[in-house]
Amino acid sequence: MRIKSIDIFRALTMLLMIFVNDLWTLSDVPDWLGHKSASEDGMGLADVVLPAFLFIVGLSIPFAIKTRISRGESGIRIMLHIAERTCTLLIMGFFMVNLEYINENRIIFSKYIWKILMAIAFFLIWNDYQVKRFGRISVIVMKLMGVAILVFWLPYIMVVQRVNHNG
Fold it and tell me: So where are the chain's domains?
């Protein structure tokens, strides 16, 4: 069951999130668009986006769980789905955040090619494939290709992090 008001609020929140995350690249941005410092009394637009995002996530969780229960999924199956989703987001976050610290002189490809490969790997691994259409073996091969891309880049991220933290 889709609730249009939740979908619209989620879409607006995501649009604002993308917008305020790129404000640092601009100059002469009005004060009300950015973050306010902790010592200031007030809030900017950027200060409202994360609470709005957390609100919409919290609002959506009961509906998502209710939908899974109505489909007949067990409590254990729902908990496994939540754990899998959590791990997925942590892995994606690890690669995306650490990409900022990669020393381009130490990697084979440019950072931009790595971003594309990373996105392709995420799609290959976590795409919701229709097994009837692709076949079970094809789905396994595509997921393994995505894992191989991330595993290939993992040493570069780990080495760069050690170098950055140790000076």
Answer: 1-72, 76-167
- Residue range 51-86, pLDDT digits in tens: 999 999 899 999 999 999 999 999 999 999 999 999
Q: State the burial class of residue 15 (Cβ atoms within 10 Å of its Cβ: 0-12, 13-18, 19+).
A: exposed
The string of pLDDT tens digits covering residues 111-142 is 888 889 999 999 999 988 877 777 788 888 99
- Centre a 10 Å sphere on the Cβ of residue 46 and count the other Cβ atoms it contains: 20
Buried b (16+ CB within 10 A) or exposed e, 94-129: ebeebbeebeeeebeeeeeebeebbeebbebbeeeb
Q: Give me the phi and psi of 121, to 5 degrees please.
A: -60, -45
